[in-house]
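worker-03 picked up job from queue 'complexes'. Input manifest follows; two sequence lines, order preserved.
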Amino acid sequence: MFDFLEGYDLLGAFWVTVQLTVYSALGSLIWGTLLAGMKVSPVPLMRGFATVYVNVVRNIPLTVIIVFSSLGLYQTLSVALGGDDTETVNFRLAVLALVAYTAAFVCEALRSGINTVPLGQAEAARALGLSFTQVLRLIILPQAFRAVVNPLSNVLIALTKNTTVASAIGVAEASYLMKGMIENEAQLILISLVFAFGFVVLTLPTGLILGWVSKKVAVKR
Amino acid sequence: MQLRKVTATSAAVLALALTATACGSDKEDGGSGDGKKITIGIKIDQPGIGLKTPDGKYVGFDVDVATYVAKELGYKAEDIVFKETKSQDRETAIDRGDVKFIAASYSINDERLQKVDFAGPYLLAHQDILVRADDDSIKSPEDLNSKKLCSVTGSTSAQNVKKKLAPKADLQEYGGYSECLTGLENKVIDALTTDDSILAGYASQKNFQGKFKLAGFKMTNENYGIGLKKGDADLKKKINDALTKMVSDGSWDKAVKDNFGPANYKNEPAPKIGDVVK
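worker-03 finished. Artifact:
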């Protein structure tokens, strides 16, 4: 039944998927938070930049962004991100593209969280003499994050599945191995099911754990 | 109330869209050839092998072979319906009866023989590399170990390079050959590898003529066969007869010349039916 799995490094491939997910999640959380900060900042230029960035990036298909990072950045502009061999370069390019793309969604999720914080909080903080960055860092964002654990976990699950697009530039993650296996084994349905199951194993606990966390930390208003 | 109207309309639109996609399958029965249609699986993205031109025509060596075979089976040219069968869908398309047979650079191998039957082979291709026309640094497959090589994600050629031919080569894989060709032109990539028939097809394209050349390494044997439903001995015999006739009346040679001519491709002589070169 499952003899077609022999000789393939299934765990290794999913390990690359996990690595892609973790690095991209951290990167997009940082960049997305910065973008959200820009979106609510008092500086019109920053607000404009964040708005344009989110609207543009959110509306480009991820495949286009990832292929562009390889063909455009690496091949045409020789941006190698400090990697020497193709494998490392492609992995880093894929993370860069995933961060750029996912950050837009993180930013929007966070902004909805910021909207849940009553205006009085910010006004009170300003009245105490805190600066804008202090208000954001000490008062607004901690409350906003607690409100958006669920939306962010949706973004994380989507990101996990989006990593499969990285195979378009030759990053050896799960779907890349799947393509090779289908080519060799002529067992389309079984192989697809095995990989679908692999992704469920990755994303289901993520959803459950973060769902529980979101209940624990939610701000009771 | 305004909101409810909008919701109702969008729900209706959504429902319509769903039903529209649900009944989007029109199956032709590939039966006998009296005015009936026959559906044949081909590739539509491999120049020289099977390519859909911008005006909706299909051209390439596989297309010529498929057309010839269909004619021998008693179908007119206008009764042939070409359908794209991507590499990973080929066995399924035959199993489900979506296509009568498949001519899509379909190499005969043991795993596939368990699922489908093959008529032919009708062409013997080899894995080869394509390099820039002015690049003479690669003289044998071993030279690839220090080079940047490109192929398509998951393809047999890419796996061969990694496992056997040049394990140390810096392999870049893309979703399609076009990206590799961009890199080859930009000198980011030194060589593109896949079956020589496909490479010859690319090198013969108008916008690439004279830019690239085939190295002529015969790294593997790829026996292109015509895939059909397992156990359909009658159809297999008919297709084999058609292929034999195609070789003997000179159409086979003409098809090779038409499709691979400009690339200076040294093709193998037409293989004998049932003669699979390992």
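worker-03 released lock.
Chain B touches chain A at residues 87-89, 91-92, 111-112, 114-115, 148, 153-156, 158-159, 170-175, 179, 182-183, 186, 188 (CB under 8 Å).
The CA atoms of residues 150 and 172 of chain B lie 5 Å apart.
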